[in-house]
Amino acid sequence: MKIACYIRNPSVFDQVKAALSRVGFTPSHFDSESAMLRAMKRTSFDLMIIDSPHSAPAEGSVFSWLDLRSHDRIPSMILAPGRDAEFIAQALNSGADDVLQRPFAAVELIARIHALARRCAPQQHRRTIEYAGFSLDREASSMVYRGAPIALTPREFSMAWLLFSSPSIYISRETLSTVIWSAGSDVAGRTIEQHVYKLRKKLMIDQRQVVVIRTAYSQGYRLDRVEQAAPSDTSGAAG
Q1: Domains and CATH numbers, the chain
Q2: Could you report the per-residue pLDDT of 160-178, keeping only the tens digit for each?
Q3: pTM (2 decimals)?
């Protein structure tokens, strides 16, 4: 079994690698989400393991990508420090198939992997999103607000899908670059900012904001209802 491991902590990966190697599984190590996403476009994996260093929804970029997948159904397991019910719900609702608490025993990790392989059959993928009066249809690549169409380019729709699929969760610039543009693209930050700026304008309804795209330099972009936007956050300007 070939397993993609997005694990930034070397000691955690060493533990996972030792457990997998003992049963003949082949782990591939990635220390960034963009590297893993690029590899998964080129290589077929049987399972992915994603380690979350913090029990908080800061892993929103990967969570959103899990929900966006449409051409594969690779089982996914999240490794989480401690048992945080909110975090576990976030991971499972975003498309993860299992969450394993760290530290863990090797025997439990392998048993869970076998269980995922047994039960993860092809499923119906998410096709629509309803949020704050907006409706997105992935098959038609269309977006409407209370029945009124909003004209989006294909890249604007992909960006909107990512943001609306995980509201209140930051999506990194790396994920936007990798998912919306081709895997090998070197997309300048300014290009992403321009697309965010144009999307912000198109999400204005009768010259008012129903949702707001907030920016954090180190984390990326996130979508909120207007009433959830904090005054100190950057939201109305590009970048």
Answers
A1: 2-119 (3.40.50.2300), 128-228 (1.10.10.10)
A2: 998 998 888 888 887 888 7
A3: 0.51
